[in-house]
Amino acid sequence: MTGNRIGLFTEIEKEIFYKIILSRRDVRRNFIRKKISNKVLLRILTAAHHAPSVGYSQPWNFILIRDRNSRLKIKESFSKERLKSIELLAMDKERKRKYLDLKLEGILESNLNICVTYDHKRFGPYIIGRMTIKEAGIYSVCCAIQNLWLAARAENIGVGWVSIINNKDLKRILKLPSPVKPIAYLCLGYITKFEVEPDLQSQNWLSRLDLEKVINYEQWDGGNSLKDWEGFNQRLTRKNA
Amino acid sequence: MTGNRIGLFTEIEKEIFYKIILSRRDVRRNFIRKKISNKVLLRILTAAHHAPSVGYSQPWNFILIRDRNSRLKIKESFSKERLKSIELLAMDKERKRKYLDLKLEGILESNLNICVTYDHKRFGPYIIGRMTIKEAGIYSVCCAIQNLWLAARAENIGVGWVSIINNKDLKRILKLPSPVKPIAYLCLGYITKFEVEPDLQSQNWLSRLDLEKVINYEQWDGGNSLKDWEGFNQRLTRKNA
Fold first, then answer.
1. Which of B18, B123, B220 sits opposite A43 (nearest CB)?
2. ω before B125 within 30° of 0 (cis)?
3. Domain B15-199 listed as CATH 3.10.180.10
4. Which residue ranges make up each domain of chain A?
5. What CATH number has the domain spanning A21-195?
6. Chain B residues closer than 8 Å to A113 by CB
7. ipTM, 2 dp
8. Which among B104, B102, B71, B78 is positioned nearest to B165, based on CA atoms?
9. How far, in Å, CA of A20 to CA of A55, rounded?
10. Which secondary-structure segment (H or E) carries B227?
11. What is the pLDDT of residues B155-165, one digit of tens each?
């Protein structure tokens, strides 16, 4: 353990951690052909498997997909869903035009696809914490996905999460048993570069909210608190904070 | 950016990252009185706010709670839910005995509580990716929670996620508007030490699954694949992997 016997991290180590957090991107392009080695993949999956889980239920599975036939079918599912999404924008020509310019997946170009699933039956039915909040097991899977994503970034590997996909198609193509639910479909691969800002920001789809807009003090205030909680809000609004 | 112009991390930096991932714990005890400074809290929340989100919708809010009255009410909600959970174990005396020994929250002893919420209306109704997978916005909030958790670990601060809590009580106590959904109730604070293994493991509730049990090749195999995917499975089963 770094630091001392209780495992304290130093200022320099914190700084490295924040660099990883801030430079992680949702990557859908610029993939190169370099293969992800088994050694690196193992480290990334170990990070995912060390996520927190409600009642220690570890309800995740990682389906590693290299097979081109499966990927072609999944790409087909994406293409159908994309068309449906575009139809929803029929009345909004400006957004539709922008949407058509967006690259939203790298299913075929990336080196590896991973489908992350949720298994409600694992260690069940009695799971501590999940008796009260039924969806908590799914939340655990998402924590594992974020661990995987950050580990990939640390390994200089891009990850894109494809949400424009039909889960029924995924279940059929990947032969998931009926109680197992797909949560994420991820595309991983080395890339030519990590972008400085998210694609949806650089392409003027949406911008990052100011942090103070998502912070509330003591109770819900919609991020519009007039309270200056011991100078915290002031510090927040400083541009170089 | 560390490394070179495309932001590559070095082997030493990766190692630090994995130490943070592997030493993160779900913390419910050993809190000390030391206050989390505004500066540190700001860094942790910045990490959370830099999570990925479906269609860049950033649907999270962070409600910071120091008020003792609110916390007492929330603790009361926990206590009621805990009793209900114990009742479910009435027929299983061994597990009931173990359950009674578990410390499952640090609501009052921790320095700060944070309720993380999901706002379905933000930037909506048209969110890229969420038109296909409705729950994807909640998944984004979970990614933010995991960023927060890891940042806190890097800052040597313990975090515990309290799932034994009634969301209706939370909404009432924290005055959440009806479309806003609480996703996590977190307790943060400095602690005397980070445990080497998860409490639920050291107290023999459940054990960590072997990694190979949650990895599937090309399609669902329930972690029981006989396929040796280019030596990957072999490497996995090596104890020192």
1. B18
2. yes
3. no
4. 21-195, 209-241
5. 3.40.109.10
6. none
7. 0.95
8. B78
9. 29
10. none
11. 999 999 999 99
With an 8 Å Cβ cutoff, is B148 touching chain A?
no
Continuous H helices in B155-217:
167-173, 199-202
pTM, entire model: 0.95
- Cα–Cα distance between A188 and A185 in angstroms, integer? 10
User: Do A1 and B19 form a contact (C-beta atoms < 8 A)?
Assistant: yes
**Which residue carries 């943060």 as its tokens?**
B188
Say if residue B190's pLDDT is above 50.
yes
d(CA B221, CA B212): 11
CA distance linking residue B198 with residue B174, whole number of Å: 30
Among A181, A187, A52, residue whose Cα is nearest residue A128:
A52
Nearest by Cα to A63 from B229, B121, B112: B229
Residue A233 has pLDDT above 90, yes or no: no
The backbone torsions φ and ψ at residue B126, rounded to the nearest 5 degrees and listed phi first, read: -85, 105
Structure tokens at B233: 């499975």
Rounded to whole angstroms, the Cα distance separating B114 from B151 reads 14
Rg (CA), chain A: 20
Residues in chain A within 8 Å Cβ distance of B145:
139, 143
